[in-house]
Design goal:
157 residues, Alpha-D-Glucose-1,6-Bisphosphate, Chain A, domain 4, 5 helices, elongated, DUF3576
């Protein structure tokens, strides 16, 4: 009986100590003008990360005309990876119609504007061989021309 009473006293003391620790330091956090001087702490939860308030249609920074024109012009190349959020299309090796040399391409569309500066194209020959700048420029021009045609067809001029 004495042991049970001692256990209750120890338990009550532990609970009181725990509650006292939650009470804070007892100092006021008010400034001289009565405003709260504590910095605001922003707490995030897992639900904040999962809840997206942004419209997914506005988060993609890729021009759709350049994107579609790139896929159409280079349709003879097998697509390996596409990422519309970063604007990167990577292809495998393929031979253009009427050509004898195979190429692979990496296309980056860096801006939502229909502009030549938005399009970055890298072509490689077999074994990573360099491709003539004139060939790269001709493919870029074909993509840009097709993108303008798609925009005109869409009626957004």
């Amino acid at each position: 009986m004495i042991f049970a009473q001692a256990a209750r006293i120890v338990m009550a003391a532990t609970l009181c100590a725990g509650l006292a620790a939650c009470g804070g330091s007892g100092r006021s956090s008010e400034g001289p003008d009565g405003s709260d001087m504590r910095p605001e702490v922003r707490r995030t939860t897992i639900w904040d990360a999962l809840r997206s308030s942004e419209n997914p249609n506005t988060t993609v920074g890729v021009n759709k005309y350049l994107w579609n024109a790139s896929l159409e012009v280079l349709n003879f190349l097998p697509v390996q990876t596409v990422d519309p959020f970063t604007g990167v299309i990577q292809t495998g090796y393929g031979t253009p119609p009427g050509g004898g040399r195979s190429y692979r391409a990496t296309i980056k569309i860096a801006d939502p504007a229909l502009d030549a500066r938005s399009l970055k194209l890298s072509l490689q020959g077999p074994g990573g061989a360099a491709v003539e700048p004139g060939t790269v420029r001709a493919v870029e021009d074909a993509i840009l021309t097709r993108a303008r045609q798609l925009r005109i067809q869409d009626g957004r001029l």
